[in-house]
Design a protein that fits this description.
The structure is a single chain. This protein is mainly alpha-helical. It has one domain. The chain has 15 helices and no strands. α3 runs antiparallel to α5.
Length: about 290
């Protein structure tokens, strides 16, 4: 006997109550808002909005109907993984929580944070090659081995898998977004190259799932049958979500970073011009327009 599959009402109305996860999200939001309040300078509203939106995305991925239906359809599971691996980490990092902590903390705390940020360990962890290796390993090891099927059957492994995706996304994207004062900040071209490499890493399992002629994760056979759906067709959809959807997110990130780099270069050039010619008016002044 079949039962209704996922619906918009099911996604939005099927929230689970996990005290630990809710507490962690609430604590993160509270600490960030406290930092904004104590910041010694005006903190950008868009950064605060980005961080809080990232926490919201985490809550949606882990507590909404997405988490419930992820055990029934692989396609929904892939949406959840994209939120944990790319969307939530990017939004949280654009919130620049470390920069906020430095701006809102007392001198002693700032000294400790500065020491940690300049340490050899942080230089290693925040390097793009390490971030890419962690990201690619998390994506390929879970989807191309038996770990994915094991995670579906074991709650502890499943939780560890989600944590691995999230922290892999943070480790990979932190030096590329570079909103926080990390030891290394790659060039715009290098950032684009690393994002394209990560897109390729996601395309491998995505293509495998899309073009496979057999169900790769037997766990989904029974749930799909109960929904009156084909587990293989849903697997193909899941592969497309990972391959095409992941590529769209990566391209959007690359485009955003490129635009940010262009604006930053324009600001640097303007400062150089003002420093070189302090007595001259800016190009937007009346005198300049009339010249």
């Amino acid at each position: 006997m079949t039962h209704p599959g996922p619906t918009l009402a099911g996604f939005s109305g099927s929230w689970s109550v996990d005290p630990a996860q809710i507490a962690l999200l609430a604590i993160a939001a509270g600490l960030y808002c406290l930092g904004v309040r104590r910041c010694r300078r005006r903190w950008p509203v868009w950064r605060a909005a980005s961080f809080l939106t990232g926490l919201t995305v985490l809550g949606v991925a882990l507590l909404s109907g997405i988490d419930r239906y992820a055990d029934e359809l692989l396609s929904v599971h892939m949406v959840q993984h994209l939120l944990l691996l790319l969307v939530a980490p990017a939004l949280l990092l654009w919130g620049a929580p470390v920069r906020l902590a430095l701006a809102a903390s007392a001198h002693r705390t700032r000294s400790v944070l500065a020491t940690v940020l300049s340490s050899r360990t942080m230089r290693l962890v925040s390097s793009p090659p390490v971030g890419f290796a962690v990201f690619a390993l998390a994506v390929l090891a879970t989807h191309l081995t038996g770990l994915f099927e094991l995670a579906l059957k074991d709650e502890t492994v499943h939780a560890l898998e989600h944590a691995a995706y999230f922290w892999a996304g943070i480790t990979f994207l932190a030096p590329l977004i570079a909103a926080d004062p990390l030891p290394r900040s790659p060039s715009a071209i290098a950032r684009f190259s690393w994002l394209m490499g990560a897109m390729a890493a996601m395309a491998i399992p995505g293509a495998l799932l899309t073009f496979s002629t057999s169900v790769r994760y037997p766990f989904y056979l029974a749930p799909a049958r109960a929904l009156g759906r084909s587990a293989l067709s849903d697997q193909h959809l899941a592969g497309a979500i990972m391959w095409v959807g992941g590529g769209i997110v990566m391209f959007a990130l690359a485009l955003t970073l490129a635009m940010g780099a262009m604006l930053a270069e324009e600001r640097r050039q303007l400062r150089r011009d003002l420093h070189a010619h302090p007595g001259e008016s800016t190009p937007t002044s009346t005198g300049a327009l009339g010249a």
